[in-house]
Amino acid sequence: MPSSPDPAPSPKGAWAERLAGILAGSFAIPLLGEILLAVINNQQFDYVRTAITAMVLGIGAAILYASQVGRIVFERARAAFLIVAGFVTATQGFLQAARPEWMVGAPIEGVVGMVTLLLGLAVFAIGWFYFRVEGPAKDAAIPAQRKPPTIEQVTFERTPGRFDPLKHTKYFDACRQALSLDRLHYVAYYEGRTRVFNLDLFDRLEDFQPVETTQAARRERYNEQGPQILDLLHELDSKFEPLETGPLIRMVFDVEQGAIFYYMISSSPAVHVIGVSLDQAQIHTADHDLELLSMELRRRSGRLPITKENT
Question: What is the CA angle 68-71-75, rounded to 5?
Fold first, then answer.
C-alpha cells in the first residue's frame, strides 16, 4: 500500500507566530468581560485592568512573534510555561483553601486576580493553538504485513551435489521469505566460492524487463558474477588486513539500476549471501531486508550475531 506523502513542514518560526496571534486575540475575552460587567451590573469600566491585560498580552505576543524559534525549541518553551503556570495556579488554590485570610484585602486580591487572568489566557491560547492549528496527531496507518512469495512464484536453482535438503531447506526458506516483488529480487547462498542455491522473482516482475537479453540470461549472469564478487572480497580483505579491522562483512554496489549486495554469514566456515534489487528507489529497504536475512541465517545455523569475536 503506497504511503501518503508527508505534509510540507511549516517554515521556521511559524509555530511561534501563530501562537502569538492567538495570544493577542485572546485579549477579546477580558475586554468582553469588562464590557458585560459595565453594562449588566452597571459598574464602571475598569480601564486600568484592561490596559494592564492588553499590555502584558501584547508584550508576550510581540516577544513570541519576534523570537522566530524552531518547532522543537517552541515546544519545549511551551511545555516549560505550562509547568510553571500549573504550579502557580496550584499554589494559589492551596493558599486560597488553607489560608484564605492571606488572599483578601488590597492589593493582594487585585494582584492574584490579574495573575490568574493572565495565566488562564495564556493556557487558553496554547490549548486553542493545539486544537485548531497544530491538532492532535493523526493515527498512523499500520502497513499491511508483507507476505513472502510462495514456492510457486519463486525460480529456484540448486547446485547438484552441494544442496542437501536436510541441511539447506531451512536456509532456503529464510531466503524465500526475504524476497519481494518490490524490493529484493534475487538471493544466492554460497559456501566458500561455491553457490549452493539461488532463487529469484525475475520472471514475476512487470517492470525492469531486460532490453537485450532474457530473464533466464540475467539470472545466469548474476550466478556467474557471484564468485567474482567473492574474489574481490578476498582481495579487499588482504589489502585491509594491516588495519586490523577484521574481515569485510557487507558490501553494496550501488549501480544505475538498483544494487548488488554482499553479506557475510560466517568466515569459518565461509558462508555468504549475495542479493540483488533492480529498483534504485528501494536499495535502502532491500539492504535492510538482507541485513535481517543475514541475522536470520546466522540464527538458524546456531551462530551468534556478528561481532568482532563472532565472525
Answer: 110
DSSP per residue, 162-177: T--HHHHHHHHHHHHH
Range 280-305 burial, b when 16+ CB lie within 10 A, else e:
eebbeebbebbeebbbbbbeeeeeee
Region of 274 please: left (phi>0), alpha (psi -120 to 50) or beta.
beta
Report if pTM > 0.85.
Answer: no
User: Is residue 42 classed as helix, strand or coil in its secondary structure?
Assistant: coil
- Torsional sign, CA 186, 168, 301, 174: positive
Contacts of the segment 111-117: beta carbons below 8 A, 24+ positions apart: 114/49, 114/52, 114/53, 115/88, 116/89, 116/92, 117/30, 117/53
Segment 48-70 mean pLDDT: 73
Helices (DSSP H) in 155-214: which residue ranges? 165-178
State whether residue 135 is helix, strand or coil.
coil
pLDDT tens for 211-251 read 888 999 999 999 999 999 999 999 998 998 899 888 889 99
Half-sphere exposure of 179 (CA within 13 A, CB side): 27
- And the C-alpha cell for 212? 537485450
Rg of the chain over CA atoms, in angstroms? 34
